[in-house]
Amino acid sequence: MLLELTGVSKRFGPVEVLSEVDLSIDAGEVCALVGDNGAGKSTLVKCVAGIHAIDGGSIAVEGEVRDISGPRDAAALGIEIVYQDLALCDNLDIVENLFLGRERRRGIVLDDDSMEQLAAETLDSLAVRTIRNLRQNVASLSGGQRQTVAIAKAVLWNSRLVILDEPTAALGVAQTRQVLELIRRLADQGLAVLYISHNLNDVFAVADRIAALYLGRMAAVLDAADTTQSQVVELITSGRSGSLGLTDTNGART
Amino acid sequence: MARPATEELRRRNRAALLEQLHRHGPQTRAELTEALGLNRSTIGGLAADLSESGHLQETTGRSTGSAGRPSTLVECVAKSVSVAAVELRFDRVRFALTGLGGEVLDRGELPLEASAGADAAAAATASLLDGAEVAEAVAAVPGLVSGGVVGHSSELGWDGTDLGAALAEATGRKWRVTDAATAGAVGEWSRGDAGEARNLMYLHGGRGLTAGIAVEGRARPGSSIQLGHIVVEPGGRECRCGMRGCLEAEMGAFGFTEAIETTTVAADLGDTKAREALRRSGQYLGRALGAVVTAVGPDEILFGGWLRELYLSSAAAVRSALAETTLPQLRSGLRLRTPALGAEGPLIGAAETGFEAIIDEMR
């Protein structure tokens, strides 16, 4: 397993946001994380990203328990996160955005040629055909193209796990399709992908496994091939579905 | 006594070398040695043979950035052998002249009138071909194909139409006729992203729905599956074919070809009618696929044509229906993907079918 969360817990004061969450993701698979608002999806991601320190449990990368205490630690372990708001700079071009903060140098000047070449190779490997000019400002790109650039930025650094937080939330239909195909391609190339979404069609289109959070607890982790939409909806809304899920969904613990 | 055997071995190796370069593009001799498991000097001899016959050439190739002489690359000469491929659709004939190595040398497209017959399609093909010298010619038709005869095509409205004969008459040469979905599977396996699939199924969404299979990249004889005529709702809507409740009729496939864009956009904006139409179509498609998966057991399914849009917009319904109608053993290793070549798959696959025949003949 590339990433393995065991009994991860997180409290904000008296509120227990995550309670003994177990989740593992292997290379080459897309794991979708679903759950209602406030179920703890974003908090879980921020724990993996090193933005929040966890209060209990452990995070293991390739079988080794790691202490991730900041975004730099996460990046060093090959974990990259694409946030909803993308965090791209409008006034910089695509290449500059991809290498922002990690520019390549040749002597004291920037090595623009090699950065541009690597950027082109990365976009090419992701079969991105919608972007023609790598030197155009990000401000001039469409929502789907921006998302593509943000994902390419995450892939550029030999990352092993890419976490996508609602990447299609603000996109139109055609752009959503492109991003979904891109997500699938990332996994098919051997990366592990943790994909957070509210849209069950998007989830079923790309996910190999579906993990449902309910009020901070992991209700179930299912193979997408064995799951039906109604089961996932029940797990999201009530934490259980038939024999699946939590047995004590009123919050009381035995 | 040893001579004929050596000669045969040499011929086989020559075909293998050509196939390797045709599929994977320019390579160094060292890479070829590794890929084919042949001796370096054998590769050299074969490459020299094929250079003499004009199929291959050696170029001073890629620089690795490090010091030293760059290694020479062996590559196909595109113009040495070419294949003509056409794909028939309800409104047009698409044409590509493809050279060895997969390079497209020429491209063309002519409109086809509604309810055009085989003669009109053949005439358009002849004018697109324009007398070009080709080693093989392949036509991809959406429908049930056997030999040169199109048994049934919802898209073209043909039943028992002898396209092979019409093409032969119009162009004065023999044509292979394959169904578009099988061609799509071959194309995606050889030039797309599905080269690892053993049993690859391609779904072709046009004005009708068909499916085709490539086993290890090769068209399976008689593999054309009439997906659109699987009955998903017994006693349901009347289909063009005369049966009731066919997938095509229940999905309204004829409307969908043009309407898929507007329907998905409307559904995205919250139109409940459009959402319901997508959900129902996805559910029916999933049920029909369930039957096909149970019968054939593919390890990868590609959603081609407008089914790509339908799948990405109603995947939850498709997969739920599939999960309810197939054995766990059959679906656990099953990958559902969209085609990497987009709409080009069938045309590229038709050309690859031609090259496969050429290389097979060399063996």
TrEMBL record, chain B:
Spans annotated as Disordered: 51-70
Polar residues: bias regions: 54-66
Coiled coil: none
PANTHER family attached to this UniProt entry: BIFUNCTIONAL UDP-N-ACETYLGLUCOSAMINE 2-EPIMERASE_N-ACETYLMANNOSAMINE KINASE (PTHR18964:SF149), ROK (REPRESSOR, ORF, KINASE) FAMILY (PTHR18964)
UniProt similarity note: Belongs to the ROK (NagC/XylR) family.
Entry protein name: ROK family protein
Native species: Glycomyces buryatensis
